[in-house]
Design a protein that fits this description.
heterotrimer; A alpha/beta (about 160); B mainly alpha (about 425); C alpha/beta (about 170); A: about 160 residues; alpha/beta; Beta Polymerase, domain 2; 5-stranded mixed beta sheet; 3 helices; B: Enolase-like, domain 1; 2 domains; about 10% strand; binds iron/sulfur cluster
Chain lengths: ~160, ~425, ~170
């Protein structure tokens, strides 16, 4: 059986009432679900004996610049056992711009989420140490949001005196 | 040593350093404890990494890395430029192995746009990747040795690396920032004389490696400063998302070249060196072995190098040759369209990862069918690897911190993006 | 100056204090390698056996600003880093010179983005701008020679009235 079907089958048998959308573009397999289930699904994917997605490669967000469902979180997981890469997607709650942190499941998520917080201003609930990753702590904006200009906002970052 | 003042350290960083529940100001000296600021300008932090160390005597109790001193805004810039224009920027990500980054990016865009690349081009790319791995590991080993006090090795490995750079110079016309790949192929073809040159370098490499090893492997100071230092276990290494030599030094047998094969790595033979100790010494051994394996791959590639085109024949997506632009009408039009409107890949998103010298370099590109990416995320290995420094340094001495950073071999260009 | 030839002939020669002091000054420039990114690697290459900066009397790379005369700023200076660069520059004793190595440092280079300072001359006095991304090591040697030329034009008295660096100051 194809491993993609196996992932879906395992998820369906574990969480029968959950709605999962799957896409398959150029061999990249992606599952989309609602943010409430994030922690449950991640935990299951990591700990299930047959799936074993132990390596969390990458966490990022997409800003769609739209009024509703503006941000989407994207997770890339890799299963060392099955040599398979899986992408998870989930929309961020619009009213609070916040989502559960997965850093309790993969420790590597800690910094990745800090980066997303810095760049997009998405709040991670129950994150152990939510600080900015790159920009100075005093900086007020979130650079990767679509409304932020490439050249920045003049005066937002101070220069030393000559 | 400078005394830190409140203005230097943001209160939030102090909080992270001390654990969430202590209230503390930097000026208060605790009995035995002190805060040491290391970087961003420090010879042993490999660029502009800043570490804040909390020490008890000489033992590190806590460590907080501070990044962003080289944050250049790649991801934002990528959203505002065409797919072709971003190639030179990839050079400067991991600036110790520019061709490998070029290849990674080109592969990602080709996967997104669905471009078939001729076999000869792929082989040349493979060779470039391996040459850059050799160059990068040479610097890594040299710098590690320098950090623990063996300066000679650094000069020797740098001398070898110069030879690789000279070959880049002949192959791509630039010795450092190569920008060698194009979407759909590579910029220039290999000459016969270059192939002979490369083969000669590879043949001689083994001798210089032995020289280096003779200086290091039986050197008591070197061994003792690395053995059992910065140990990270199998499970922790995976949990922290380590990749590359740092992961393989902890006994995890994982190499994207073999496990998620790209280019034509399935057609060449190579071993994936794995060591089980998880300390700095293991990481050093992995690197040395990888240089040898890479040399083997280069030899095989040169033997098997197929003949044929080096650019894909796909006029809607791939830039035509310069000579043709000047002489043929159709090529001129294609060139105009490509440069002005971009290659417009279909709507969708892809993730392409390659095994870079530092670890897994991935590009996640979201396309809305326009000439520029809607989003381009760089999954940089150094960024993730640096995250494990606090875990590795805990309980070791200050002088070990230097060795640990050297053994992870971070490059801030890609860590800070 | 053809020193050896002179000494063989008469055993002495006449010169001005200015000439001899500026000659001494320019032939022992100690650089402070402010290596920030890619250009720093090329700066490292200048020290290796092939290019060998020691021929110009500048192999003494000092990682502490207190012992150096020339700051080579090699690499992209971001707004966050600019404060650090400035702080280190302030700690260098006078007289001091600055080379802006690479397109980034000179003008922002290819990084027209929110976090990169568009040219370090916005907060530092620069003596030599060095083109290239990265400049080849030979090019850096050329820049060093230009700085030496500039130093060679100084008079012995030029730096007499400069304030003493205040080492008690907390930077
Ligand atoms: S000028 Fe070019 S090589 Fe030098 S730091 Fe800037 S981007 Fe890097």
């Amino acid at each position: 059986m194809d491993f993609k079907e196996k992932v879906i089958q395992q998820l369906n048998s574990q969480f029968p009432e959950m709605k999962l959308e799957t896409t398959d573009f150029r061999g990249d397999f992606c599952i989309k679900f609602s943010p409430d289930n994030l922690l449950m699904i991640c935990e299951f994917l990591k700990n299930n004996d047959q799936l074993k997605f132990l390596l969390c490669e990458d966490i990022t967000a997409i800003d769609w610049a739209s009024r509703t469902n503006r941000f989407t979180m994207v997770y890339h997981l890799f299963s060392l056992k099955n040599k398979f890469r899986l992408r998870l997607k989930t929309d961020v709650d619009d009213s609070t711009t916040s989502i559960e942190s997965v850093s309790s499941i993969w420790r590597t998520a800690n910094w990745q989420e800090r980066e997303v917080y810095d760049m997009y201003g998405i709040n991670f609930l129950n994150h152990p140490d939510l600080r900015r990753m790159y920009m100075p702590e005093e900086f007020e904006y979130h650079p990767l949001r679509k409304e932020f200009p490439v050249m920045g906002i003049p005066g937002s970052l101070p220069l030393p005196k000559k | 040593m400078e005394k830190l003042t409140k203005n230097d350290v943001h209160p939030k960083i102090v909080q992270a350093l001390l654990g969430a529940d202590t209230t503390f100001t930097v000026e208060d000296a605790l009995d035995n404890e002190m805060i040491l600021n290391m970087g961003p300008q420090h010879p042993a932090t490999h660029g502009v990494l800043r570490l804040l160390l909390r020490l008890d005597g000489e033992t590190v109790i806590a460590c907080v890395p501070e990044l962003g001193y080289l944050h250049r805004g790649y991801e934002k810039m990528a959203e505002n430029m065409g797919y072709l224009d971003f190639i030179p920027h990839t050079d400067r990500l991991d600036y110790l192995s520019p061709p490998a980054n070029n290849v990674a990016y080109a592969l990602a865009v080709e996967k997104l746009a669905g471009i078939e690349v001729p076999k000869r081009a792929q082989y040349i790319r493979m060779m470039m990747c391996e040459l850059s791995r050799i160059a990068s590991h040479l610097v890594a080993v040299g710098a590690l040795a320098m950090d623990v006090g063996a300066l000679t090795v650094f000069l020797w490995t740098l001398r070898e690396r110069e030879k690789v750079l000279d070959m880049y110079d002949v192959i791509c016309g630039a010795r450092f920032t190569t920008s060698y790949t194009r979407i759909g192929g590579v910029a220039q073809d290999l000459q016969k004389s270059t192939i002979i040159e490369i083969q000669k370098f590879i043949d001689e490499l083994e001798k210089s490696l032995e020289e280096v090893e003779r200086l290091l492997n039986s050197n008591r100071i070197f061994i003792e400063r690395l053995e059992d230092i910065g140990v990270i276990s199998y499970d922790d290494a995976i949990d922290f998302g380590l990749t590359g030599p740092s992961l393989r030094g902890s006994g995890v047998d994982f190499d994207l070249r073999r496990d998620a094969s790209y280019l034509y790595y399935n057609e060449v033979e190579f071993k994936v060196p794995v060591y089980y100790e998880g300390d700095c010494l293991a990481r050093y051994f992995v690197r040395m072995d990888e240089i040898r394996e890479s040399a083997k791959i280069v030899t095989q590639v040169l033997d098997k190098l197929p003949s044929g085109e080096i650019m894909a024949n796909n006029p809607k997506k791939v830039l035509p040759r310069k000579t043709e632009i000047y002489t043929k009408m159709e090529e001129l039009i294609h060139d105009f369209m490509l440069v002005n409107f971009g290659i417009n890949p279909p709507v969708g998103d892809i993730y392409q990862a390659v095994e870079n010298p530092k670890g897994e370099l991935g590009f996640y590109i979201v396309s809305k069918g326009e000439g520029h990416p809607w989003k381009l995320k760089i999954r940089s290995p150094s960024f993730v690897n640096i995250q494990s420094i606090p875990h590795m340094t805990k309980g070791y001495m200050v002088s070990d911190v230097v060795a640990i950073i050297g053994s992870i071999d971070p490059v801030m260009g890609e860590a800070d993006k | 100056m053809g020193l050896e030839a002179k000494l063989q002939q008469d055993g002495f020669f006449t010169t001005t204090i200015d000439a001899i002091i500026s000659w001494a000054r320019k032939s022992s420039v100690w650089p402070m390698p402010m290596g920030i990114s890619c250009c720093a690697i090329e700066m490292m290459a200048v020290g290796d056996p092939k290019y060998d900066i020691a021929r110009f009397g500048s192999e003494v790379m000092r990682f502490t600003p207190r012992q150096s005369d020339l700051m080579i700023v090699a690499g992209t200076v971001t707004y966050k880093m600019s404060h650090v660069v400035k702080k280190i520059y302030d700690q260098m004793p006078d007289p001091k010179w600055v080379i802006a190595m690479g397109a980034c440092t000179s003008s922002g280079g290819m990084y027209r983005s929110y976090s990169v300072v568009q040219g370090i001359d916005q907060f530092l006095p620069v003596d030599v701008y060095l083109a290239g991304c990265p400049p080849r090591p030979d090019n850096l040697l050329n820049a060093l020679m230009q700085v030496q030329e500039k130093i060679g034009r100084t008079k012995a008295r030029d730096f007499q009235d400069l304030p003493q660096p205040d080492f008690t100051k907390q930077y």
